[in-house]
């Protein structure tokens, strides 16, 4: 039985990671005959993402690039009642980025930013009929954000500003999932509606050497998306099953309570700063040996022509009888 298919194309690389890894890793329940009815799955996930964004208009430009690390640990396929299962994960994400912003007539602004996130994620899956499931998931996280900004760098007017801030985010989603087996092909499709909100506290920049302060108002970022995804795998042997997948990311609603500070992000998921549609494609291989499944995956994400991201995912799942 395949469950979540989308949870991280968007989130801290967080959603897509959890969904793709968990979703495909559940296939062996039907296809290998090993551990066909485990008590639950113990699962660990690690991912590394690099990303870049660049938008140019005349002499003005806004660009940033960076990387993030994501770690998750949890239990899945927990039986709640007949036809209803669930899972619970804790995860941490650490992100670093650098940005360059030039908007005439102001001087160049360079910012270095780091974000550290700790979150809790859970989901429940209901079996509607053979091969068809409904999945509801949600999570809550807290972020610590550090900023170091240079205004007019390498000039006589250079100013240095630093700040620390905190924010929290929550998200919910409802997905319809379909999976089937045709000969040795493993086919999954999913349609999801995802809503995310980030609430950031107000904070103050302190500039040196002029000893000037700049207070930044609190921020609420709201975004909603439609996600359509599909994956096709092929079981070569009982141990090896390569796969390919892809999907669309469509913005339904996007708003900020105040303008964003150019060159900075509100969470460890750069995608939540972007009001642009996009797509993702990927592939990898599952290795299954008795109770253990290792999944290796590579993802590419693009939002219009301004944002590009590469995501490497390693997931290890152990069936607990």
Describe the structure.
The chain is 5% helix and 69% strand. By secondary structure, the chain is mostly beta strands. The protein has one domain: Autotransporter beta-domain (Lipocalin, Beta Barrel). A 12-stranded antiparallel beta barrel has the order 1-2-3-4-5-6-7-10-11-12-13-14. It is elongated. The two termini are 17 Å apart.
Top CATH class = Mainly Beta
The total count of strands amounts to 14
Q: Tell me the name of the CATH homologous superfamily.
A: Autotransporter beta-domain
So how many helices? 2
Radius of gyration (CA) equals 21 Å
Give the distance, in angstroms, between the N- and C-terminal Cα atoms.
17 Å
Number of domains: 1
Helix vs. strand class: mainly beta
Q: Which sequence of SSEs, written as H and E, runs from N to C?
A: HHEEEEEEEEEEEEEE
Q: Just name the CATH architecture.
A: Beta Barrel
CATH overall fold name = Lipocalin
Strand content: over 45%
Keywords: Signal
Protein name: Autotransporter domain-containing protein
InterPro entries: Autotransporte_beta, Autotransporte_beta_dom_sf
Pfam families: Autotransporter
What topology does this entry show?
Elements: H1 14-25, H2 28-31, E1 40-57, E2 60-81, E3 84-102, E4 109-129, E5 132-151, E6 159-182, E7 185-200, E8 203-208, E9 212-216, E10 219-234, E11 240-256, E12 278-289, E13 292-303, E14 307-320
Antiparallel strand pairs: 1-2, 1-14, 2-3, 3-4, 4-5, 5-6, 6-7, 6-8, 7-10, 8-9, 10-11, 11-12, 12-13, 13-14
């Amino acid at each position: 039985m395949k469950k979540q298919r989308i949870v991280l194309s968007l989130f801290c690389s967080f959603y897509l990671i959890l969904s793709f890894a968990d979703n495909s890793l559940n296939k062996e329940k039907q296809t290998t005959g090993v551990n066909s009815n485990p008590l639950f799955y113990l699962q660990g996930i690690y991912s590394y993402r690099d990303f870049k964004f660049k938008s140019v208009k005349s002499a003005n430009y806004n660009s940033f690039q960076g990387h993030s690390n994501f770690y998750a640990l949890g239990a899945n396929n927990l039986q709640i009642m007949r036809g209803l299962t669930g899972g619970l994960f804790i995860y941490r994400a650490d992100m670093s980025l650098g940005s360059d912003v030039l908007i005439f007539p102001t001087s160049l602004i360079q910012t270095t930013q780091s974000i550290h996130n700790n979150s809790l994620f859970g989901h429940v899956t209901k079996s509607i009929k053979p091969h068809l499931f409904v999945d509801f998931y949600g999570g809550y996280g807290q972020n610590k954000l550090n900023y170091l900004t240079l205004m007019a760098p390498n000039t006589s007017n250079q100013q240095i500003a630093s700040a620390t801030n905190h924010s929290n985010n929550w998200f919910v989603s409802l997905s319809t999932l379909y999976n089937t087996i045709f000969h040795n092909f493993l086919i999954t499709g999913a349609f999801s509606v995802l809503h995310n909100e980030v609430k950031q506290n107000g904070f103050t920049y302190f500039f040196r050497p002029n000893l000037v302060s700049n207070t930044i108002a609190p921020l609420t970022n709201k975004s909603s998306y439609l996600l359509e995804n599909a994956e096709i795998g092929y079981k070569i042997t009982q141990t090896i099953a390569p796969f390919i997948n892809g999907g669309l990311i469509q913005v339904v609603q996007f708003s900020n309570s105040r303008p964003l500070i150019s060159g900075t992000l509100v969470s460890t998921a750069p995608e939540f700063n972007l009001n642009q549609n996009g797509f993702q494609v990927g592939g990898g291989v599952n290795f299954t040996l008795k109770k253990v499944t290792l999944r290796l995956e590579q993802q590419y994400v693009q939002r219009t022509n301004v944002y590009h991201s590469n995501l490497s995912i390693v997931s290890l799942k152990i069936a607990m009888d």
